[in-house]
């Protein structure tokens, strides 16, 4: 029997080997997440939804709680933030914890580089960031600094610019965001921001 | 016409009316083709006698029509649909129906009555949309006239005439009158001496007088064509005072609004399926051998040497299916989030299709108060964010009615409504409409809102590409990549119309026919990795 005339359905659960360890099915009820963030939460720049794989559970929980409380996403110019807000509005702390656990287990390909900048210039700028986020951008849970490697470069750039313009980090109860807002004062131009994002993204 | 041949008849017409009269009469007699539409693509049997198989991704109009035509040729189709319902953006809601907005699921609270429904997506069909009309006929979907314009409806602009709404017929009549008066004046002042003979200038003045309802000496002083301030059955009509020329020129929105029923896709009469636009979807489903697999979200699409392999997720389980060809109706902007092995250029083309922010509100009104105001169907237009009010032209004089209370495709306005909760949207929509219909809010019993850019699995309506991207990628997306075809209104010049979706399906099937008839072995590698 040839493939061309046969349409067959393969239940991957029973087929074993074809399913990579990282390919865990989406928990029922969380299919909404993958509509924007993509298959295995690999990210989709067209929707402005970043790759989530590689983020720490504690950081995801903090961000989801921030969206829920309006600490993040409430700024009138934060379009995608407001889209996220409506997705977490009804979540309980238990939901948030379960989602964060699932996200921290997903794996997806390392994102492609899309932001072009001066890596050397970005490296110099990053010296100020490394104290918290680590020289290899792997983050530091003790001081609440998330890992930056594995995040889409376009998303890093967007967030750096959001901190610069006050779309993010101006909410009084956003302790970490306010620290970031102060920290990005070293990023003084759009090329600076692109150079920094380009440098961080190639640290993987 | 006794004993006269058709050719003789045509020569008489040609002599009487010139060649354009001849052309029109020839068309009427069926001697020349009006357009090339001859029904859907007939799928040819495969060259080697072995019928291929097909995967259809998305049970929207393009996907369902593609499946129907393939099934007619005996081709087995598997239709995967991510949503809990088939139809895509062809969505009609009634009592109890779920509106699957991301983060804001709503349940339609309309009373349980056949005439209380709302077409959230496509809602009107012009007479020249041959493809969708073909399917309405072939699938036994009864149609009725939908009044798309009512001259008794209103124009409203806060910046014109002190924000007072004006009946469209009054504005139309005044604009014609004022423009005709200018034409008369120019003619009187010998502006056309170089262009026209004295006789023709006289005709032009006569024309402007008739067209604009001018006085004997070329003045526009209002016209009873726009009604009367008196009871015109019992008294002499007394025209409304006309608007000033300066006010007309300042009313930029209104003279834009003049085009509301003038453009080709809105030219009257338009039609709608009796009982809701989803009659089209139900028609397809009645005639398909294989029903769509629902709640099946596509995760991967791979062109393989001998077909296309698709992995989807349903109820927490991953499934992989394979077929010889794939017709993909998924919004192109989702494809970056779906694993695939498309070429970088093809993926860039898919990425260039951007989300549209079409937004609608519908209210259930306790009374059809607009009918008491002389409005039966049609549309009022406003510069306020709600954009348009649509009055139903079906079920005239019923007790209740579903009124479209907002319709905009302005991305900024759409984004404003998207940020609101459904309840806030209904409140805001009512406040704006009060300016056109004082007391509007007291008739509202319930309502729904449809922000297409927030609807699960669609995330947009009225997709668009920039002109540069269109030049670069449109023709690329019209062609298959390997055995994978993109379809849907997104692959047409008519995004947001079912006709565009059907045209894309037709185009893909024509190419499919060529591929299948030229492939001596349909399982052969045909894609370029």
UniProtKB/TrEMBL annotation, chain A:
Segment forming the signal sequence: 1-21
Pfam families for the chain: Cytochrom_C
Molecular function GO terms recorded: electron transfer activity; heme binding; metal ion binding
Span of domain Cytochrome c: 11-107, 117-204
Heme in keyword set: yes
Keywords carried by this UniProt record: Electron transport, Heme, Iron, Metal-binding, Signal, Transport
Record SUPFAM superfamilies: Cytochrome c (SSF46626)
UniProt xrefs under PROSITE patterns: CYTC
Protein name: Cytochrome c, class I
Organism: Paraglaciecola polaris LMG 21857
From TrEMBL, chain B:
Top-level EC class: oxidoreductase
Catalytic reactions of this protein: L-tryptophan + O2 = indole-3-acetamide + CO2 + H2O
Pathway: Plant hormone metabolism; auxin biosynthesis
EC number annotated for this UniProt entry: 1.13.12.3
Sample GO molecular function, one term: L-amino-acid oxidase activity
Domain Amine oxidase: from-to ranges: 61-508
Superkingdom assignment: Bacteria
Keywords per UniProt: Auxin biosynthesis, Oxidoreductase
Record InterPro entries: Amino_oxidase, FAD/NAD-bd_sf, Flavin_monoamine_oxidase, TAT_signal
Gene Ontology biological process terms from the UniProt entry: amino acid catabolic process; auxin biosynthetic process
Cytoplasm keyword on record: no
Stated family: Belongs to the tryptophan 2-monooxygenase family.
Protein name (database record): Tryptophan 2-monooxygenase
Organism: Paraglaciecola polaris LMG 21857
């Amino acid at each position: 029997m040839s493939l061309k005339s046969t349409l067959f359905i393969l239940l991957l659960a029973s087929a074993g080997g074809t399913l990579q360890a990282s390919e865990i099915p989406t928990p029922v009820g969380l299919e909404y997440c993958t509509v924007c963030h993509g298959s295995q939460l690999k990210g989709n720049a067209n929707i402005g939804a970043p790759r989530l794989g590689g983020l720490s559970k504690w950081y995801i929980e903090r961000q989801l709680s921030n969206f829920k409380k309006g600490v993040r996403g409430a700024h009138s110019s934060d379009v995608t933030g407001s889209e996220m807000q409506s997705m977490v509005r009804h979540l309980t702390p238990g939901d948030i914890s379960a989602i964060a656990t699932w996200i921290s287990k997903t794996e997806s390909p390392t994102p492609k580089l899309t932001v072009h900048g001066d890596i050397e210039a970005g490296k110099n700028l990053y010296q100020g960031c490394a104290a918290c986020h680590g020289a290899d951008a792997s983050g530091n849970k003790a001081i609440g600094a998330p890992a930056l490697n594995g995040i889409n470069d376009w998303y890093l750039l967007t967030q750096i610019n959001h901190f610069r313009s006050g779309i993010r980090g101006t909410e009084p109860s956003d302790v970490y965001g306010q620290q970031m807002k102060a920290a990005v004062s070293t990023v003084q131009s759009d090329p600076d921001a692109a150079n920094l994002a380009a440098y961080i993204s190639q640290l993987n | 016409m006794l004993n006269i041949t058709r050719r003789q008849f045509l020569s008489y017409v040609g002599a009487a009316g010139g060649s354009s009269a001849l052309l029109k009469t020839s068309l009427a007699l069926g001697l020349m083709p009006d357009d090339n539409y001859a029904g859907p693509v007939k799928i040819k049997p495969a060259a080697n006698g072995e019928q291929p198989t097909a995967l259809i991704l998305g049970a929207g109009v393009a996907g369902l029509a593609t499946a129907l035509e393939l099934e007619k040729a005996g081709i087995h189709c598997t239709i995967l649909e991510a949503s809990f319902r088939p139809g895509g953006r062809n969505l009609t809601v009634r009592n109890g129906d779920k509106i699957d907005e991301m983060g804001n699921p709503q349940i339609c609270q309309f009373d349980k009555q056949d005439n209380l429904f709302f077409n959230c997506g496509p809602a009107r069909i012009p007479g020249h949309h041959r493809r969708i009309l073909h399917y309405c006929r072939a699938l036994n979907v009864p149609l009725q006239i939908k009044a798309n314009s009512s001259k008794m409806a209103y124009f409203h602009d806060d910046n014109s005439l002190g924000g007072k709404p004006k009946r469209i017929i009054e504005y139309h009549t005044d604009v014609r009158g004022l423009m005709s008066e200018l034409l008369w004046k120019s003619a009187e002042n010998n502006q056309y001496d170089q262009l026209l003979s004295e006789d023709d200038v006289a005709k032009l003045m006569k024309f402007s007088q008739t067209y604009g309802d001018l006085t004997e000496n070329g003045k526009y002083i209002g016209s009873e064509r726009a009604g009367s301030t008196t009871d015109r059955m019992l008294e002499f009509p007394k025209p409304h005072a006309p608007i000033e020329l300066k006010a007309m020129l300042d009313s930029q929105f209104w003279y834009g609004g003049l085009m509301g029923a003038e453009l080709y896709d809105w030219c009257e009469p338009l039609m709608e399926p009796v009982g809701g636009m989803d009659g089209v979807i139900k028609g397809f489903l009645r005639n398909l051998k294989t029903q769509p697999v629902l709640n099946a979200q596509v995760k991967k699409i791979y062109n393989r040497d001998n077909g296309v392999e698709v992995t989807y997720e349903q109820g927490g389980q991953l499934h992989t299916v394979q077929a010889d060809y794939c017709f993909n109706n998924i919004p192109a902007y989702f494809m970056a989030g779906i694993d695939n092995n498309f070429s970088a250029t093809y993926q860039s083309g898919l990425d260039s299709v951007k989300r549209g922010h079409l937004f609608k509100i519908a209210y259930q009104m306790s009374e059809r108060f607009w009918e008491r105001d002389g409005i039966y169907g049609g549309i009022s237009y406003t510069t306020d964010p709600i954009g348009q009010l649509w009055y139903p032209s079906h079920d005239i004089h019923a007790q209740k009615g579903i009124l479209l209370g907002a319709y905009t495709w302005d991305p900024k306005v759409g984004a404003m409504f998207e940020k609101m909760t459904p309840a806030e949207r209904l409140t805001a929509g009512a406040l704006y409409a009060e300016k056109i219909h004082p007391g509007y809010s007291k008739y509202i019993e319930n309502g729904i809102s449809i922000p297409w850019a927030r609807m699960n699995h669609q995330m947009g309506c009225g997709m668009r590409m920039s002109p540069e991207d269109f030049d670069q990628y449109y023709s690329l997306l019209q062609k298959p990549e390997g055995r994978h075809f993109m379809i849907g209104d997104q692959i047409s010049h008519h995004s947001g119309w079912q006709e565009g979706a059907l045209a894309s399906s037709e185009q893909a099937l024509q190419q499919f026919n060529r591929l299948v008839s030229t492939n001596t072995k349909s399982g052969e590698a045909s894609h370029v990795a």
